[in-house]
């Protein structure tokens, strides 16, 4: 949907999003999980991630505090790192291929209810 007030593109994504906002849920994230994602994981607050102890690739979307997309990383493989992203407040981890299939782009906003 286009918001006529500021012409920003707001989009919803076709995934259930689980929120990880406590110390333990943020710390664990997707580590040690054996099966690939079928939903999204929103880690708040968060501005960088690691793929240590991961067994599958994911797509990653970095968001500002108002859910503006400021960086996307497609097909992030196990044992890789994404250093801190300036301005990022949250990270949305999605199934691999989700960025491309949903046409998620930097500068858009994600509607997370």
From TrEMBL:
Pfam families: DUF192. InterPro entries: DUF192, Saro_0823-like_sf. It comes from the Bacteria. Signal peptide: none annotated. PANTHER family: UPF0127 PROTEIN MJ1496. This is DUF192 domain-containing protein. It comes from Guptibacillus hwajinpoensis.
